[in-house]
């Protein structure tokens, strides 16, 4: 399951870097993608990523000699749990509430906030890779 963590980490690093360097273009692209999609259908993506993160963190073990040591990655599990909660909330909240949140993020959030989120994604991706 380490390949799941590597894949998610590299995707986060790439998305974060793009958000930092090309803030306006990446926001416009995401705005266009989200304007045409149903928030309930999009809720599946964070739930799936969260489930994979939780599963990968719980199945992480290190073989030591003849014994295997179970070592859960608590940060990865916490991030997965938060992503699952986000997916569930996006699915069960009324579409107007979800659209208002997305419109705030895409139209009213400052460039600094989007760049900060990109930096957080890059840091989290690097932390997960260094922990694996």
Tally of alpha and pi helices: 7
What is the count of β-strands?
Answer: 2
Classification by helices and strands: mainly alpha
Order of strands, main sheet, comes to: 1-2
Rg:
17 Å
Main sheet: strands, sense, barrel:
2 strands, antiparallel
Low confidence ranges: none
Mean pLDDT: 85
Provide a descriptive summary of the structure in words:
This protein is mainly α and 132 residues long. It has one domain (2-131). 80% of the residues lie in helices and 6% in strands. The chain has 7 helices and 2 strands, in the order ααααββααα. It has a two-stranded antiparallel sheet. A hairpin with a 2-residue loop joins strand 1 (61-64) and strand 2. Helix 1 packs antiparallel against helix 7, helix 2 packs antiparallel against helix 6 (95-108) and helix 4 (44-58) runs antiparallel to helix 5. The longest helix is centred in the last third of the chain and has 21 residues, at 111-131. It starts with a helix and ends with a helix.
What are the key terms here?
mainly alpha, two-stranded antiparallel ribbon, single chain, 132 residues
Compact overview of the structure:
By secondary structure, the chain is mainly alpha-helical. It has helices at residues 2-21, 23-35, 39-42, 44-58, 74-92, 95-108, 111-131; strands spanning 61-64, 67-70.
Map the helices and strands.
Blueprint: H1 2-21, H2 23-35, H3 39-42, H4 44-58, E1 61-64, E2 67-70, H5 74-92, H6 95-108, H7 111-131
Antiparallel strand pairs: 1-2
Helix pairs in contact: 1-2, 1-4, 1-7, 2-6, 4-5
């Amino acid at each position: 399951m380490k390949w799941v963590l590597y894949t998610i980490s590299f995707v986060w690093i790439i998305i974060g870097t793009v958000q930092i360097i090309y803030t306006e273009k990446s926001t416009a692209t995401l705005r266009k993608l989200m304007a045409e999609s149903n928030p309930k259908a999009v809720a599946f993506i964070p739930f799936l990523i969260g489930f994979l993160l939780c599963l990968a963190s719980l199945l992480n073990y290190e073989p030591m000699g003849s014994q295997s040591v179970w070592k859960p990655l608590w940060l990865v599990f916490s991030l997965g749990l938060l992503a699952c909660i986000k997916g569930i909330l996006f699915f069960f909240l009324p579409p107007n509430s979800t659209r208002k949140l997305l419109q705030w993020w895409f139209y009213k959030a400052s460039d600094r906030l989007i760049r900060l989120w990109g930096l957080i994604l890059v840091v989290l991706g690097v932390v997960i890779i260094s922990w694996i």
